[in-house]
Design brief:
Layout lengths: L2 H16 L13 H24 L7 H18 L11 H21 L2 H5 L10 H12 L1 H19 L4 H53 L1 H15 L2 H22 L43 E3 H5 L7 E4 L6 E3 H22 L5 E7 L3 E8 L8 H7 L4 H12 L3 E6 L5 E8 L15
Parallel strand pairs: 2-4
Antiparallel strand pairs: 1-3, 4-5, 5-7, 6-7
Length: about 450
């Protein structure tokens, strides 16, 4: 179940509540097919048992007694066949009554049939319909309930036959083993279902937490870092304000990094970066980077990536694009633009305000590739991993997290003294929500 599916269900439930209606509960149950199969089994075996009794009607010592039992059993099935269509309808009281019909039919068989026919292997009145009552216990309560019910049937069969005949023991053991095995499988399936539901809850919570962390990094953390730096430069009361902003930045980074739970599918996409305009030359290494004002995301349809990336061009940024439109789903294009913004932020942080950056857009048959390159000093080996451990999550969330949601990836190539190159790849036809997620390359 994807995030889009979860949002669709919860949105429908919210709409139903607003209109005063009770929302329909969508139950994800691995045992529902078993209940349907049990219902079909009980109906088919009833038909088979009726035919069996009808064919042997004249052979019974008291055929009217056999007919009376089969009539009662048919009425019982007509009144209760829906009870086995769902676990809510199949109550413990019903299961006991159903088993009572089966055991009662076995015990009255000697009263309506001759001893010779019974010893010759004649079936009991309920015949194989009895297994349906036992299977109901197995599906409802697991293997322990199944063992109790099948044991009751076994005792009834031994009383009816009055001896330990081979075929009787064979049938008893077969019913006992089958019901216990099905009951155990049902218990395992329920445990797996609970584990899956818990995993989906954790995954959804993780995605939301990572989305919030990414938005915080793209806006609040950088504003706090700017206030800290400006306050230190101005001095006086502003310096104290800057110091407090710096403390809050560190605390917030620690909270964001500590609350992160690794997710195989990445974070859910957040919005574009919030613009915080100030000169790029004022940023130093290790400080917050200037946030480039990205165009707002376009809702729905497709979008030309060039239109979203063109505003990044400036005296310090060279933008190169194909001559034809580069189309991506609007949400995917917005996420790619936000990742480019974060990559440019890293250029100003690590290369300084005097660095020059180049943005190259390539429209490949199956993907859109955007390369961000600078002429800075490069990134020392292991620095990206160290930054992530320190709580600086620009690369982990604003770049890798966004592209991972789109089924793409990011690759860094950095040589000391020769600058850094970041290649961002987004497969065509992907969207952050509800689409197929691929494996990130970085």
């Amino acid at each position: 179940m994807t995030d889009a599916d979860i949002r669709t269900v919860t949105g429908g439930m919210a709409a139903a509540r607003r209109h005063g209606k009770h929302p329909k509960v969508l139950r994800m149950s691995v045992e529902l097919p078993l209940w349907r199969a049990l219902t079909g089994y009980r109906i088919l075996t009833l038909v088979y048992t009726l035919c069996l009794v009808a064919l042997s009607y004249r052979r019974y010592e008291h055929p009217l007694g056999a007919a009376a039992y089969m009539g009662a059993l048919t009425v019982w099935m007509a009144l209760t066949w829906r009870r086995t269509t769902s676990p809510e309808r199949c109550t413990r009281r019903f299961l006991i009554a159903d088993l009572g019909f089966a055991v009662g039919g076995i015990l009255i068989t000697p009263l309506v049939d001759s001893h010779a026919r019974i010893m010759d292997g004649s079936p009991t009145l309920p015949s194989i319909w009895t297994a349906g009552a036992v299977l109901g216990f197995a599906i409802k309560g697991g293997w322990r309930w199944a063992a109790v019910a099948s044991s009751a049937v076994a005792v009834a069969n031994l009383v009816e036959r009055q001896e330990l005949a081979r075929d009787t023991i064979h049938n008893v053991v077969l019913v006992w083993v089958a019901s216990v095995a099905i009951g155990y499988v049902v218990e395992v399936a329920r445990a797996s279902e609970r584990t899956l539901a818990r995993a989906l809850q954790i995954d959804a919570a993780t995605r939301e937490r990572e989305r919030l962390a990414r938005d915080i990094h793209d806006s609040v953390l950088q504003v706090l870092a700017m206030v800290q730096r400006r306050g230190a430069a101005i001095g006086g009361e502003a310096a104290e304000l800057g110091r407090m902003a710096g403390e809050q930045e560190v605390a917030l980074r620690t909270l964001v990094a500590g609350g992160m739970v690794p997710s195989a599918h990445g974070a859910r996409p957040g919005g574009a970066a919030t613009a915080v305009p100030y000169a790029a030359g004022e940023s130093g290494v290790g400080e917050a980077a200037p946030v480039v004002a990205a165009p707002p995301p376009v809702a729905g349809g497709s979008c030309d990536v060039r239109a979203l990336l063109a505003p990044y061009a400036s005296a310090g940024v060279t933008f190169s694009e194909p001559g034809a439109p580069v189309e991506l789903p609007a949400a995917a294009a917005a996420e790619l633009a936000a990742a480019v913004s974060a990559a440019l932020d890293n250029v100003w942080v690590h290369a300084g305000g005097d660095a020059h950056a180049w943005i190259l857009v390539e429209d490949e048959p199956h993907a859109v590739i955007v390369t961000v390159r600078d002429d800075g000093p490069g990134i020392p080996e292991g620095r990206l991993a160290d930054a992530e451990r320190e709580g600086r999550l620009g690369v982990a969330l604003s770049i890798r997290g966004r592209l991972r949601d789109l089924g793409g990836g990011a690759e860094w190539v950095s040589v000391p003294g020769q600058g850094t190159e970041v290649e961002l790849t987004v497969p065509k036809g992907t969207a952050p929500e509800g689409g197929r997620r691929g494996k990130a390359r970085a």
